[in-house]
Amino acid sequence: MPTILSTILKTIGLILAVLVLTVFTQIGGFVLLLSLMVAHLLRHRKPQRWPKWAFKTFIFLGTYLLFNIAIVPPLARLTGRVPLPVFSSETLVPKQLGYCLMNRHYVEPELKALLEDAGKHLSTQFPGTAITYLDANLPFWDGFPLLPHLSHNDGEKVDLAFFYQDEAGAYARNHTRTWLGYGSIEAPTSREKNWTEICLSRGYWQYNFIETFTGPDEDMALDRDRTASLIRYLARSPKTGKILLEPHLKYRWGLGGFNKIRFHGCHAVRHDDHIHLQL
Questions:
Q1: 150 CB contacts (<8 Å, ≥6 apart)?
Q2: According to the model, what pLDDT value does residue 9 have?
Q3: Cis before residue 247, ω within 30 degrees of 0?
């Protein structure tokens, strides 16, 4: 009986692991099953000093990295998506390597080109500046959700971090107030329309979720000039379809004349901690 129960629990655990890895990385569930098959075939060659779980973990991580580096990028290109640069660009960088390891940095080539052009423009205006990207899209299949986002499912969307300054007032390259780049809000003043209060009063409890989940580190100040300049460049580009930004920041930063900068609505989460860009 314990053996049957143990088998059932292991099977349930495996199914859950496959589902979670598939939801968050798209390829992780398939790679897990493949690595278990490889580990089974190589079980007699396992080093004696290695526990079985350590051997399986090593095979999984090795197989996953192989897919991420050598297999997923060319397959994604065949379906019309390309990865954003990880180490190869001086003007466009990921906030965390984890976004790339989880395959959340894929976009359509046109969006990648727009970001590269914006990075070059910004580095000309502010030498040494690099655009920091956050979540983009997964590599395959339009409509496959990138949780917890509502719309990052077609290769046409990417989130960008605000720019910040250190305590001395110097530009802090690829640094944000939070580890993930999300969650450090630029709240409305008493004279500005507070859509967070409005949305919460209407029952949209999730609207403030990102701020309460991560919390800010107040040691760094927002770099308004760089942030507004980036948004202004993107809003003027014919490639840009829409930029989502909290309304009070749009007008605070003098961007009121750009129709492409829009309010996202109460059904989403607040956007005064990052920039949402889409074709």
A1: 267, 268
A2: 85
A3: no
